[in-house]
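Annex B. Sample input.
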Amino acid sequence: AGKYFGGREGKSKFEWLREDVDSGEFKLVSRGTAEYLLTEEDVGLRIMFIYTPANSDGFQGDPVSAITGKVLLAPPKVTQLQIVGDIIEGNKVSIDAAISGGLEGAS
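Annex B, continued. Sample output.
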């Protein structure tokens, strides 16, 4: 999360914000953690992280922030592919899989 100075770190604030499509302003989407999982909602938008340091005595420092470029759509990916059904002549089988990288289109 960056380098902390100023005594023992206390309850520093971590905030993740997403750029709003219409206004261009950044709106809070998560707080309290130094990690954020990018989702389909983030694609094409920028993400901002605000770190407000605080020491164990409760004193807060000045917030600092970082902004990403626009989040890119992940390439399509299939995992956990398996054939399901009774594997006996005359029976119908199908597939089950986890798909990531945007919305699945017609296959």
